[in-house]
Automatic annotation (TrEMBL):
Gene Ontology MF terms in the entry: beta-glucosidase activity
SUPFAM superfamilies registered for this protein in UniProt: (Trans)glycosidases
Protein name: 4-hydroxy-7-methoxy-3-oxo-3,4-dihydro-2H-1,4-benzoxazin-2-yl glucosidebeta-D-glucosidase
Keyword Glycoprotein among UniProt keywords: yes
Matching PROSITE patterns: GLYCOSYL_HYDROL_F1_2
Signal peptide: 1-21
A Pfam family of this chain: Glyco_hydro_1
Family, similarity comment: Belongs to the glycosyl hydrolase 1 family.
GO biological process: carbohydrate metabolic process
Amino acid sequence: MGGVTAFFYILLSLWVQDAAAIIGFTRSDFAQDFVFGAGTSAYQYEGAVAEDGRSPSFWDTFTHAGKMPDKSTGDIAADGYHKYKEDLKLISETGLEAYRFSISWSRLIPNGRGAVNPKGLEYYNNIIDELVKHGIQIHITLHHVDLPQILEDEYGGWLSSRIIEDFTAYADVCFREFGDRVKYWTTVNEPNIGAIAAYGSGQLPPGRCSDPFGITKCTAGNSSTEPYIAVHTTLLAHASVVKLYREKYKAEQKGVVGINIYSFWSYPLTNSSVDLKATQRAKDFIFGWMLEPLVFGDYPEVMKNIVGSRLPSFTKVQSVLIKDSFDFFGINHYYSLYVNDRPIEIDVRDFNADMSIYYRASRTGPPAGQGAPTNVPSDPKGLQLVLEYLKEAYGNPPLYVHENGLGSANDDLDDTDRVDYLSSYMGSTLDAIRNGVNVRGYFTWAFMDLFELLAGYQSKYGLYRVDFDDVRRPRQPRLSARWYSVFLKKNGSSPLVSGTQEDLTLNTVS
Ligand SMILES: *[C@@H]1O[C@H](CO)[C@@H](O)[C@H](O)[C@H]1NC(C)=O
Ligand SMILES: *[C@@H]1O[C@H](CO)[C@@H](O)[C@H](O)[C@H]1NC(C)=O
Ligand SMILES: *[C@@H]1O[C@H](CO)[C@@H](O)[C@H](O)[C@H]1NC(C)=O
C-alpha cells in the first residue's frame, strides 16, 4: 500500500466512523409517508421485444438502425420480462418502499389502439400483484420513450394531435385494468429534454433533426420547430388523460396523476447582468416550457417573444384544460450547469440557439456547444435549489424526485462514489423539505443496470449490477444497494464499507 493510498485509507476509516455526523440524517428525519424507492422503465429493463405479442416501439426501430453510440439494442436488456419475479423479491429484500416503472404501450396494445394483448395484460398484472403482496407502493409511468412504431408510421407520433385520442385510450385501458391497485400515475417521462433529444439533436427515437443541429445523422426532421410541436402535443395529451382520470376514475380509485420533467440547476457563470438574465431565461425554457402552461395556462412570455410563430399556441379551451391538470410533478435530476450568455448570430435556430446561452459543466470549462456536457461534477446543493425554485415559482406543488443517480462506466460492486452521491442528494432533498418544499418521495435511478438512454450499456446506474455478457443476466447487489437497505430497514445513517457490523446480506440472482 503506497503512502497516498494509506493516507486515503485512514481518511476513509475516519470518515466511515464519523459518517453519521457528516450525513446527519436518518430515515426518521423524513415523514413516515414520504417514500423511498428506485426505478426502471419498460424498454430499458424488459427485453423480450418480440415475445408474446409485443409489437415494436420506436425504440426498437431506432436501436436496430444502429443509432446508439455502442450499437446496442434493448432486445434482451436486463431480461426483466422473464426475471421480474426475482427482481421484485430483491426490491422487497432491499427494503424499498416504492417502485417506479413504466408500461410498454406496444406490449399492452400492439396495434397502438384497439385490442388489448392478454399476455401483456397478464405481465403487468403479475408485477402489480407481486408489488401489492410485498407492500410496495406502485408508481407507473405510461410513456417512457416507448411509442408504438405503428403510430409513428401512421401519423408521426407526438408531432400529430391524433396522438391525443390514442394516448388517452391507452391510459383508459391502464386505469381500468390496473387502477384498483395503482394510485400513482405519471403520464410522460421528461418530455422537455426528450423532445430536444428526439427532434432537435436526433439522439433519442424517433431520431429526427435538421442541419446543422443533428448530433446523430437524421434523414428527416426540423430542429427549429419539431421540439416545440412535440411538447405542445404532449401537454395536450397529458391534460386529456388527467381529465379522463378525474371524470371517470378518481372518485372510485382515489389516485393521483402527474407528469415528469427533466431538471438541472443553472448557475450564472458570472454576475454580469447578461449572464444573470441568461440564467433566468434557461430556467424559463427548461422548467417554464412545461410548468407555466400547467400552472398558469400558457407558455412563458420570454419563450413566446423569442420563439415567435415556431411556438404553437393554446386556444382558450386548451389553456383551461391544461391549467391545473396535475396532482404532482416528478423531477429527474442529475447535475448542475453554468450558464453563459451567448448572443444569437445565426438565422436558423434550435432550442439551444433560442435560449441563446452556452452551458458549461464547470466555471472554467469550455462551452458545451449543443450537446449535454460530459463529466459534470456532482452538486447536491443543485437539487435543493431546483426544488426550492419550483416551490417559489410554481406555487409549492407536490413534488417527487423521480430520478437521481450516478452513471458510471465503472462496473465495480464497491461503488462508494455512488453511495456518496445518493446520500448527499438525499440530504439536499431533506434540506429542501425543511425549507418548506412539498417533496413526497425520492427514487434513485436505477434499481439495476439497464439499457441506458444515450449510452446503451456503457453507463451503469444500478444499485444492483447486471452482467450483460452473461445470457442469464445475473444480478449482484452493489455497496449502494446495501447502504440504501441499511438506511431504510435499520434507520441507518452512515455509509458503510463491506464487512462492517451494519452491513446487510442481500441476495444475488443468477
Ligand atoms: C422548419 O420549419 C420552418 C417553419 O415551417 C421552416 O421555415 C424551415 O424552413 C423548416 N426547416 C427545415 C430544415 O425544413
Ligand atoms: C455572484 O454574487 C453572489 C452573491 O453576492 C456570490 O455569492 C457569487 O459568488 C458571485 N458569483 C460570481 C461568479 O462572482
Ligand atoms: C432513527 O435514528 C435516529 C437517530 O439516531 C433516532 O433519533 C430515531 O428515533 C430513530 N428512529 C427509529 C424509528 O428507530
